Each structure stands twice: as C-alpha cells, then as structure tokens.
Amino acid sequence: MKQILNNWGLSNVKSKKIDVGLMNQNWLVTEGKNKYILRKVVAANERNVRFELKYLTTLKRGGLRYSIPVPMKTVKGDYLVKEKGSLFWMYEYIDGTHVYNFDFIKLREISKMLAEYHNILIKNKKFFMLKSNRNDPYQPSKVGVLVKRTLTELNKKRNHNTNESTFIRYARMVLPIADYIAKHKERKLEYYYLYNDISKTNLIWKNGKLNGLIDFDFVHYGNLLIKDLAIVIQRLCHYNSKKYVLDLSKVRVVIETYSKIRKLTLEEKDMLIDMILTSCIGDFDFLFHIIQGSSERKITMQEVCNWARMAEYVFENRQKIRETINT
C-alpha cells in the first residue's frame, strides 16, 4: 500500500479499507489533516476507467456545484497506477455521511441536483452525448435478454441452490413484463453518457444538505436522461425497505422539482414508466450476479427479489403512476 501511495507523493500516511460498495475496493487514506479516497479497479477495464476520469473532470469544468470524485494526478502526471493486474486512482475525500430515509425535502434536493447535472450534459453535448451505438444493456429493449441469458446459464445446471431456485421463480414473473416494454417503439430522444446509479450509498450528505455524488462506474454506458430520473423513483420513492411499493406523493415531488429546472418532454414522460420497469428488472438481474460472484457482498436474496416485486407492482399500477407523472 505504501508503495502505491508513493505514486501520489504521499508519505507517513494511514489507510483503512472501506466496506461500502459493490464493484470496487476503496480505502480512506489520511496524511495529517488531509483525507483521500484510493480506489482499486480491474485493469481489464482500463479504457472504461480512463473515460470515467475524463468524464469527471469534464463534468466539474461544466459547472456542477456538487462535490464529485475528481481524480488526482500522480507525480508522473497520470491519473492511474497499474499494479499486479489492478488499477488504482485517487481523489480528495468528500466530507459527509449517507442517508437511508428520504423525505420530501431530501428528494427535492436530489431532483434539483439531477436536473442541474442533466442541463450540463445537454449544454456540453459535444462530449457527453452518445454518437454511436446505444451500449447500455439495461435498456427497455435489452433488459429481458439479460434475464433470459441468466436463466439459460442456470438451466444448464442439474441442481440449483436456494438462491438460484428463487431467481428462476421470480424471473418467470418479470419476463412477460420485460417482453411488454421491449415491444414499445423507441422514442426519438437523445442518448447521453449519464450517471446511471443514483443510490443511498452514492449520495453524500453534510449538515442535512446534499453535498456530493460518488461512484461514476457506469458512465461509459449511454442511455436516455430520464433513466437517472427513473432510478431515483425506483430506488428512493418506495414506502420502506420491506414494502417495495411506490409512494406516489414522493414520485410527484420528484417530477415537480426536476421539471422546474429542466422541463420534461411529453416523449420523456411517456417513456418514464418503461424506464422504471427496466431499472427494477435490471437491478434484479444485476444484484443476483453480484451474490453469485461473491459471498462477501452484503446483499440478501430478499433484496434481489424486492426489485422483481416492484416491477410487478409498477406494471400492474402503471396507469395510476402515469397519472401522477403527468399531473
């Protein structure tokens, strides 16, 4: 660790591993009163990581008022350090804590931040707008393919453990929904490299205010701006951790606050429910693979299945939700 940190000219430091996070490893590094975050990622993803770092610096130059993990240059002038098949990069520590319950006030702050963020993407579309294939696998037209692919792999096995049997049962429930949204015609909307991952552990709060946004791992995927909005509704607007049913009063607050800063088009409103369903089904499939790949991740199969249950709820109540969005 000391050898790696020397690349940033840091000495006489202390480091402590941070357990929060699904994809990468992180350490809190302290040098006197200064604090930094060191991130470790897979070297095979170097192209995506370099794009992420360029994205962060471009976003900050674009005027984002919130703290984000802007990378620090090494003593050699690069941002990345390669060591034994891994990549390391560092940014200054963003002060604050996580919040796990979201009332109207907090949802308004998140919605405001997101709308300002999206306006920066639009204003700087030369860099942020996707120019080639739409490469996010978690799109309405593709998410069902991912679930079917997972089922195909599981069906090759003679015996299934409890998690696998549970996934198969819930996958059969969500596949008709995935097929339904895949049949809808894609709207003529612009695709951007966007955040893709609003979640409780990626939002940083300080003194009751939203201070920062971290973990931009998925920005190399391109999708519609409303995907970020759909994820906020999906992940932060349900009643509680046990009942994954949308609180429509919270949904209304998110839409109203966002629209005051960036007005949603009729096409975007029309597609928002499909994108919420896509996010639910995508998280269902993605988190199952996280569980299968590592027993160390603090995820339960109940959490995985909650997203399938929410997809079912949203699908069955799509007319009521549509009325809330259009109010």
SSE map:
Elements: H1 2-5, E1 14-18, E2 25-31, E3 34-42, H2 46-61, E4 81-83, E5 86-92, H3 104-123, H4 125-128, H5 143-155, H6 162-182, E6 191-193, E7 203-206, E8 209-213, E9 222-224, H7 226-236, H8 248-261, H9 266-293, H10 301-316, H11 318-326
Antiparallel strand pairs: 1-2, 2-3, 3-5, 4-5, 6-9, 7-8
Describe it.
The protein has about 325 residues and is of the alpha+beta class. The chain contains eleven helices and nine strands. It has two domains: about 10-90, Phosphorylase Kinase, domain 1, CATH 3.30.200; about 105-325, Alpha-Beta Complex (Aminoglycoside 3'-phosphotransferase, Chain: A, domain 2), CATH 3.90.1200.10. About 50% of the residues lie in helices and about 15% in strands. A hairpin with a 2-residue loop joins strand 7 (about 205) and strand 8 (about 210-215). Helix 3 packs parallel to helix 8 (about 250-260), helix 5 packs antiparallel against helix 6 and helix 6 runs parallel beside helix 10 (about 300-315). It is globular and about 60 Å long. The N and C termini lie far apart (about 55 Å). The relative contact order is 0.13.
How large is the share of residues in beta strands?
Answer: 5-15%
Shape, please?
Answer: globular
Query: What is the strand arrangement across the widest sheet?
Result: 1-2-3-5-4
Number of strands: 9
Largest sheet: 5 strands, antiparallel
Evaluate the radius of gyration: 20 Å
By CATH, the architecture of the largest domain is named Alpha-Beta Complex
> What is the CATH topology classification name of the largest domain?
Aminoglycoside 3'-phosphotransferase, Chain: A, domain 2
Regarding quaternary structure, what we see is single chain
Rounded to the nearest angstrom, the distance between the terminal CA atoms is 54 Å
Stretches with pLDDT under 50, minimum 5 residues: none
How many structural domains does the protein architecture include? Answer: 2
Could you give me the name of the CATH homologous superfamily of the largest domain? Aminoglycoside phosphotransferase (APH), C-terminal lobe
Order of helices and strands: HEEEHEEHHHHEEEEHHHHH
CATH class of the largest domain: Alpha Beta
Mean pLDDT: 92
